Amino acid sequence: MLLINKAWQSACSLRLKEVVETRTPLFRYFALLGCALSFMIQSASGQQEESHWSFQPLRDVKVPHLESSWPENPIDSFILEKLNDAQLQPAKRATSDQLTNRLYLDMLGILPTSDPLLSLTDDDSTSSWSQLVDQVLASPYYGERWGRHWLDLARYADSNGFEFDFVRPFAWRYRDYVISAFNTDMPYDQFIKEQLAGDEINPSSLQSWVATGFCRNGPTVGNQTLDKNRYEELHDVITTTTEVFLGLTVGCARCHDHKFDPIPTADYYSLYGVFANSEEPYERPRVGKITEAGKAFEDAYNKKLQEIADRQSKLYAETLYAARSRTTEHLVRVATTEPDNTETTIFFLSLTKDQLRPQITYAWRQYIAQHARSGHRIFGPWADLMQGAELTPDLWKEQGIEPRVISALVKGKPQSPEDIATVYGELLTNSWGLRSVVRDKIKSIESWSAELGKGIINLADLMAGGDGLGKGEANKAINPVTGETATGSTSSIDAGKFDTYLRAENPYVDGVFIPQQKSSQIISSTGLAIHDAPIGNKTASWDYIKYGPSQGFTSTSINGIDYAAEPNWMMGLHANKGFTIDIAAIRALHDFEQGEFKTVIGHGGAKDMSTIDVAIYLDGERRFYQPAFKAQQPGPELSIPLNENNRFLTILITEGTDGNSHDQGFFGNPRIEIGKDVQYQAKVRTQRDAIARDIAVLEQQYSSTPDPNEDELARVLLDNSSPVWFPKRRLYFYLGRTDKDAYRGLLNSLDAIAVSNANAADRAMVMVDKSELTDPAIFQRGDPTQLGNTVPRQFLEVLSQDRKPFQRGAGRLDLARAIGDRENPLTSRVWANRVWLHHFGTPLVENPSDFGLRNEPPLQLQLLDYLAAYLIANDYQTKALHRLILTSQAYQRTSFIPDTVKFVKQNEIDPSNQYYWRFNRSRLDLEQMRDSLLLASGMLDRAMYGRPVELDREDNNRRTIYAFVERQNLPNMVQVFDAANADSSTALRPTTTVPQQALFALNSPFIERVAHNLATRIEANEPSHSIELAYKYALGRAPTENEISLGLEFLATNELVDFAQALLISNEFWFVD
To answer: Which of 156, 300, 653, 845 is exposed most, by the fewest CB atoms within 10 A?
Structure first.
């Protein structure tokens, strides 16, 4: 079997000629057999694909002509034909009470409340029912009910999901758009276009922009620095778009051709290219008016935007500078290695600051391949020498080679590819950087001089290897386990020996330690100990002691100030760890006697996730203690005087409660102020005279250095065509992990401002095209580092007769038009099936989001095609389809099965009711249940639209569609009653029966509250009148005489509130008949 399997796999990957020429006879035999079987399967599959029912054009379906005269609605004709074929009989019409309640719960999600709507009688005419249907379709509450069905499909939520689950402050604008679209009966094809490309179809309409939130509704991974996370988000958009609109599982073609449907991997990546070339701008467009109360938010928002722009500019300049400075390293790699897979990845690279950027190395490979040819003015000698030629300076002069290139090569005498690359790298770097280096030296000295005059010693800078005046490197750190200097970040740290005090490599840090759960701790190299240390919740720690925030931070702000943004600075100290600063060593460096330690203390973890205990000691004496310090609360400002005898300053942070890695202690602007010290002032005067002389020498050197902007060698690194250049908008791809975390945190803080300000003018999550578009490449086996052939952005082949690449922008509008095209056989079928599903509780096509080859033709295929064609004929107006379905006798049948031999037998023949001979009884879903309870009690707040409110808030009486949808921390009611999972598209909610549901009905505070309010509402002088009111409000009908009698008997021994609750948790209330 192994041999056959191997031969089969080989046959699928070899051409027939290669199979025939295989040397081993036995292998050749099995390979030929595999080829034959493969061809047969492919042929059969192709025939099946071509004939598959859902890929066929919509037929001109004729309504069956039946001898029976009762079907007046085409739907009934189709259903009756199938019933006749199966020798089944339709059930009778439901009662007027049942029909009215069914209609209202189905279309509006609540029971009818006004008397005129209860006047429908069992013998009412068709016109009376039609009028009631029209009245319901005109209700503004229709959009709230049917919009919720769409939000299930669109995986709508008000938070990101995953570990951090940040709030999306403006996601609700999409929810309101959907409600409005349903209420205005927006044509379904227009609805598709606006959600995929509203920014293109109607750029002047901000509401159309809001619609593109469909593309942004999916969960967002908290750690944006991992390559796979961006890919997962794009996969979510592709999967959701194709399943929701087309009923195809295109996501299955991510790693290989679809195993069942005619969807090749190339088609998946064609759609990938559409969405990968689109992005959500971090500055979300404002779609609401600025109120007087909202001006403060706008000021804060614009200030944060400017901060982001400044940070981006700074990081961009630093990243370009680093790329140019490391030209030699890149060229050596080009000359001595083969291309690496990571060089062509287009995802978020998670690199440390000191690692070469692979995409720049790859750009150098392409640049060298294009320019390194004999006779080229700069790279001609590179080409010659790499071919093994000797140095030929005279020939190069004749060829017009740049003289400095010849001089550098003659001087360097390179003997290997590495030597050649080194000479070129140093030459280019010096040509660009010499003048820049001199200028940087001048700026550095001037900056140092300015800091010198301030009399402030930056302790975070000292931690990072600096001198306290700004020469340290951000993200440099000290390992609390070893005392060694470190770079970047790490995760969990488990020390072998706790309470062991270790000397640090840093000359200004005496030592480090990770405390255990006891109060005594050695805190200096002299054996100094403390006996009142805070006792932490754990002994492990996380990350280093570092210049900058600890890994995984949520906030870097204290008291409204972002200490990760210049001109501020910060020192991260994630629990549990401590360290001792050697004040004597700092005093010797800066020549002062007295000073003052100052800082502001912050907790940058996620809110309500943890507390930390902060203690600070001076020579073993505790000078500050803050227990149970909560995340993102106002931070205390600290000032501790230092005299000439003080030596050890100890800082200790322990975990107050288990924070699951959220114990992000940090110190804002930690410093020693020495500006008032007389000894230090004298030193400053002496040093400034020497500084002035150094600057004068450097200024003379600078003026004699060529301007790189006019130097052809320097321009190799400066031009926009340079391998090291990239547009600012792609900066994020080139940042190291720590910088990405900090930058992403800054972007997240935009939302944090909006979350904390209820008066913020509305903005929207939107999707727009990127300014620079690229054709996607196939990721072989789904691996982004294994790039295959490029593919154009275009529609699915199986649905395209004359397929052409998308021409407009990223292709979202072209894609939307292809999906909504009336010739597309899937779109109208899929939507008609979804509408039918929500009316009858079961779909015509078993899997509403998969119309592929695994789905057999539905029993009611002709009916489905008729509904789809009807939808198109009525300009994709969904309400027209509603009206057709609601006025059918199929919809109006009873759900009760008569206790007769015929119907009992009929139920055994068709228990799942696939012939629709009766109506399907169903339990109220979460929204229907909660909204109907609030309505019956008189508490329902019918205000429409607006910001979401937490579902379990006691004062939240709004409809459930306006509840805050959180992906991670779900309210109990949501968990118990089968709400849609917002992590993915939900076509059909599950219906479970579990004990928690009964317990909720009997004991929950919510049920108790609505029962009390209903009891107050129905209180009357006569108990019988209270019973009548209770039935009217809770069940939408009048009680029978027997029910009144039972009610009176119950009230004789029980309270009215008990009667109200009994009615509210009855089967009749909780089920739609």
So the answer is: 300
